[in-house]
Amino acid sequence: MKVTVLEKTEDTLKLRIENVRPGLMNALRRIIIAETPTMAIEEVVILENQSPIFDEIIAHRLGLVPLKTNYDQYVRPEECTCEGVGCHLCQAGFTMEVEAPEDGYIATTGDLKPQDPETIPISDKIPIAKLAKGQRIVAEAYARLGIGQDHAKWQPVSTMAYKMIPSVKVDTGKCYGCKECVTACFRKVFKMQNEKAVVVDELNCTLCNLCVETCDVKAITVTYDENSFFVTIESTGALPPEKIMEKSFDVIRKKYEELISLLPGRAPPLKKVPAKKKAPAKKKAPAKKKAKTTKTKASSKPKKKKSK
Fold first, then answer.
1. Which residues 6+ apart lie within 8 Å of 31 measured at CB?
2. How many whole angstroms separate alpha carbon 198 and alpha carbon 176?
3. What is the pLDDT, as a whole number, of residue 262?
4. Backbone φ, ψ for residue 240 (5° rounding)
5. What residues contact residue 131 under an 8 Å CB cut-off, 6+ apart?
6. C-alpha angle 16/252/250, rounded to 5°?
7. What does the pLDDT read at residue 283?
8. Which DSSP symbol is given to 18?
9. pLDDT tens-digit profile of 233-291?
10. Beta-carbon contacts of residue 127 (< 8 Å; ≥ 6 apart)
11. pLDDT at 65 over 70
12. Which residues pair with 262 in a beta bridge?
């Protein structure tokens, strides 16, 4: 595998990945979206709510707030020694207590007071509820590690997309500068230079082949490499995009190790359960001889002799 970083910002990562099978690339995409764990609020205890918003809506809004994730301090509840009950190793707590002044107030994520200063919302300006004068909200919230397969609030990315690397070529011997391809391409892949169409942004091509269809002299060819990909990752802010990639590869590695351990010859031998001993068969007693009896009908009566 060959990985080239094309662009990197705080929340966005664009890569060129080569020598990878499409199946592995799609597995990586699915694992990033559905199986890379992040922190999110799972339980909310509403102690007081005088706002016009129902308790369930406030809890739902708090659950969708992206939180900074720290793998070094927390483990998933099913892997914790508390067996998912909730402790400092698998759970981060928050408190929220706001009251609106005379001119009203908008409760935001900035009003969430974390117990762990490293596990905080990615922004303190996400609105939760609008309060009128004197209205109060008092609540407690508890965040845990989870995966997007269970709920979308645990997805670490807002976008994880890839496409095969296109190859666009122009035969300058055939091109006579009609500009049809430049006008037809909405992705601005082509540009006129010395009265000829030239390729200026090959990666921006979407393989729609509209340029090929509009070229009368068939001077343009569009192909792709099925083992090379252009990848775009946009993080929600819970994790840096490079950390998301790193964690997703850890998940893939763990799956492969589990699969290899189950292959014949590598799996641990199954414990044989000793068969239960059959009880010795009881000898049948000899059948008793039945006494001979004469059957008579209950309705039969002895016949009377006729008198002479």
1. 248, 251, 252
2. 12
3. 84
4. -65, 145
5. 50, 51, 98, 99, 100, 104, 105, 106, 107, 137
6. 90
7. 52
8. E
9. 999 999 999 999 999 999 999 998 888 888 877 655 555 556 555 555 555 555 554 44
10. 106, 107, 108
11. yes
12. none
Q: Classify residue 238 by burial, with Cβ atoms within 10 Å: 0-12, 13-18, 19+.
A: buried
Could you tell me the domains of the chain? 2-34+157-235 (3.30.1360.10), 38-155 (2.170.120.12)
Q: How is residue 247 written in tokens?
A: 């964690």
The single-letter DSSP state of residue 78 is: G
pTM: 0.76
How large a percentage of the chain has pLDDT more than 90?
67
- Burial environment of residue 168 by CB neighbours within 10 A (0 to 12, 13 to 18, 19 or more): buried
Backbone phi and psi for residue 147, each to the nearest 5 degrees, phi listed first: -125, 155
Structure tokens at 47: 């102690």
In a 10 Å sphere around its CB, with 0-12 CB exposed, 13-18 middle and 19+ buried, how is residue 276 labelled?
A: exposed
**Contact by Cβ (8 Å): 130, 115:** no
